[in-house]
Write a structure and sequence with these properties.
The protein is mainly beta and 188 residues long. It has one helix at 96-99, and strands spanning 2-3, 12-15, 18-28, 37-44, 50-56, 60-63, 67-76, 80-84, 91-95, 111-117, 120-124, 129-137, 149-154, 159-163, 171-175, 181-186. The chain has 1 helix and 16 strands. A hairpin with a 6-residue loop joins strand 8 and strand 9. This is Elongation factor P.
Length: 188
């Protein structure tokens, strides 16, 4: 158990029987007349839905310890995602809705780190930023267009908005959480 004022980003909490990962947290300390509160944005690990919650500072919450293991991503079908332990060859299924936001960043056969709860994967531990190659994009606008953006299709099929100087073959850094362009890493 922990007190709401001690909740930190990345922790997993059990609320109403479901597991939630804390995405962001803000602690508002009280004043002489107002009591303090904790506001947290959490993601349900079963359904993938994001919710905003608020608790008084001294609310007791149940934190859940998870085990981090390396698994291999096999495939995703319309209902579930299949992962395999590379040493024991044990296969795990996770509801697709829970991992939907990660799927564009996964390649069949690639290794991923997963968080296990009671021996079952409940979430993936991907880096916050992923390098991807630009497969195609428009030519861009000539002249003074430093602040305009254009669409680019990446190697994984995602479409992101990029600056005008990005060309096909460039490797860019993409934010996993938002799916947005961060910076160009190198040019092919």
């Amino acid at each position: 158990m922990l007190v709401a004022r001690d909740v930190r980003e990345g922790q997993v909490l059990r609320l109403d029987g479901d597991l939630y990962r804390v995405i962001s947290v803000t602690v508002h300390t009280g004043t002489a007349q107002l009591t303090g509160a904790v506001r947290a944005t959490v993601r349900n690990l079963r359904t993938g839905t994001v919710t905003e919650l608020r608790w008084p500072l001294d609310t007791r919450l149940e934190d859940v310890p998870l085990e981090r293991v390396e698994l291999q991503f096999l495939y995703a079908d319309p209902e579930e995602v299949v992962l395999m332990h590379p040493e024991t060859f044990e296969q795990f299924t996770v509801p697709r809705a829970a991992l939907e936001r990660y799927l564009p960043f996964l390649k069949e056969g690639s290794s991923v780190y997963a968080w296990l709860y009671e021996g079952r994967p409940v979430d993936l531990d991907l880096p916050k930023q992923v390098p991807l190659v630009v497969a195609s994009c428009g030519a861009g606008i000539r002249g003074r267009a430093e602040h305009t953006m254009k669409e680019a299709v990446l190697e994984n099929g995602m479409t992101v908005m990029v600056p005008q100087f990005i060309q096909p073959g460039d490797t860019i850094l993409v934010d996993v959480e938002t799916g947005s362009y961060i910076e160009r890493l190198w040019r092919k």
